[in-house]
Amino acid sequence: MTEETAEREPAAGPGAVVALREVGVRRYTTDQVILDGVDWTVRPGEHWALLGANGAGKTTLLRLLGALMHPTTGSVEVLGSRLGRVDVRELRARIGHVTSAQRVPQDLDAHTVVLTGHTGTVQPLWRMYDEAVRQRAHELLAELEIKELADRPYGVCSGGQRARILIARALMADPALLLLDEPFNALDLPSREDLVEAMHRLAEGRPRLATVTVTHHLEELSPAVSHALLLREGRILTRGPVEETLTGTWLTACFGRPIAVNRHEGRWWAYSGRQGS
Ligand SMILES: Nc1ncnc2c1ncn2[C@@H]1O[C@H](COP(=O)(O)OP(=O)(O)OP(=O)(O)O)[C@@H](O)[C@H]1O
Fold first, then answer.
1. DSSP H or E stretch at residue 257
2. Residue 234 and residue 219: Cα distance in Å, rounded?
3. Cβ–Cβ < 8 Å for 211, 221
4. Least crowded by CB within 10 Å, which of 4, 259, 262, 266?
5. % of the chain exceeding 90 in pLDDT
């Protein structure tokens, strides 16, 4: 099995949330190839898991989707706008991007952090938040089941609570595309399960929302995850419906060691046997 087994992507057609064609990213300083030949379409209502070993290019791919960088070669279309031909600030405002790189003043309370999602700012712009906007922030906290955190400083919230606050913040713009870069990082088991459940509910309540989640662990995927893209050394190994892509064979190829995969009631788990056993 080689990279060439990733068949060519059919034309995206109108209405695609994301359409990447022959995308390459290269570092000019070192000439390092970070992404190469990436063809990918995400459609409304699809929920993608983005998997690959450390350094495979997952975060870079997510940054392209978030209009935070441009490709070196190929074309990136997000929400109908082609990068390079559009005001990226306007485009970014329509994309929800949850990443640990998000700067959040630690003394802001959770409700205010969510409000900053309305303006896409680090600090609150109070004159921009009317009663309806404030109410919406409360509703999103309630939807993520953290309404009791409204007045709590972000800095004292736990990792799982922060993840949900940042998701609520990202949803303030009512995005058609939600990007999540390792949202489960460092969560304990109950927090992980709460977040998996929250992601599931979110998907069910928003039939046209598309999501892309970078993760290292299949256990973190909600039953709503419909598709997966597996990256290896900057190239797509395989992409498509989870039934076809989240298999022991593909994950073994992706991570370079034997991996067995199981699924039960929509949830996944994976483990690696001893080499050669
Ligand atoms: N700004 C940069 N300057 C130099 N190299 C970079 C830069 N950004 C990414 N890279 C390199 O590109 C490769 C892919 O990085 P990326 O962060 O996209 O991988 P990843 O799959 O998200 O990894 P991880 O699972 O470890 O987070 C790595 O080798 C990384 O060192």
1. none
2. 24
3. no
4. 4
5. 78
Q: From the CA of 194, how far away is ligand 1's center (Å)?
A: 29
Q: Please report where in the chains the tokens 């960088």 appear, as a residue.
A: 69
Helix, strand, or coil (residue 85): coil
Q: Which residues contact 170 (CB under 8 A, 6 or more apart)?
A: 96, 97, 98, 117, 178
pTM above 0.80, yes or no: yes
Output the residue whose Cα is nearest ligand 1's atom 4.
27
Nearest CA to ligand 1 atom 12: 34
- pLDDT tens string 205-236: 999 999 999 999 999 999 999 999 999 999 99
CA distance 75 to 78: 10
Element (H, E) at 107: none
pLDDT of residue 1: 41
